[in-house]
Design a protein that fits this description.
Length: 157
């Protein structure tokens, strides 16, 4: 129970005790003027009834305000949930776009790497041919030089 509830219960109990202690005065009949006529009624009970009626009106108003606030809170909660769902969908859409963009970029890089690899393999094959040709030419040149040296040595002997 909140502080306000306890305070209201205490005040109601004090009012009930006051009415019980002064019941004879509350029920004493007096002449009441209503503006255009006069009636005989107990002033205390009339005032007590009017106070109770006023309390009920205020209680009804408080209930109405509380109910309106709860309904407004529920409406706002639904709006927030809808906005959260839209934000989640937008975020997943952005993630999907990012993933597709990354995949496309990685595919381009892979294609470029394959193209560079093929170019490098072609150059290496060409260099191997050139090297083999140079080795053959060098070997032929060395063979010719060795053969010439053998001929010279054979002529000198």
């Amino acid at each position: 129970m909140g502080f306000r509830s306890i305070l209201l219960i205490v005040l109601f109990a004090l009012l009930a005790a006051f009415a019980a202690l002064n019941w004879a005065a509350f029920t004493a009949s007096t002449s009441l003027t209503l503006g255009f006529t006069s009636v005989q009624a107990p002033l205390g009970l009339v005032m007590l009834a009017l106070s109770a009626l006023l309390a009920l009106v205020f209680l009804g108003f408080a209930f109405y305000v509380r109910t309106s606030a709860l309904l407004e809170g529920r409406r706002q909660m639904k709006e927030l949930q809808a906005q959260r769902e839209r934000a989640d969908k937008a975020e997943s859409s952005r993630i999907t776009q990012l993933q597709q963009s990354l995949e496309a970029g990685l595919n381009r890089v892979a294609e470029q790497m394959n193209a560079h690899k093929n170019e490098l393999l072609a150059r290496m094959a060409q260099l191997e041919q050139t090297q083999a040709q140079l080795i053959t030419e060098t070997a032929n040149g060395l063979s010719a030089a060795v053969g010439e040296l053998e001929d010279r040595m054979a002529r000198r002997n």
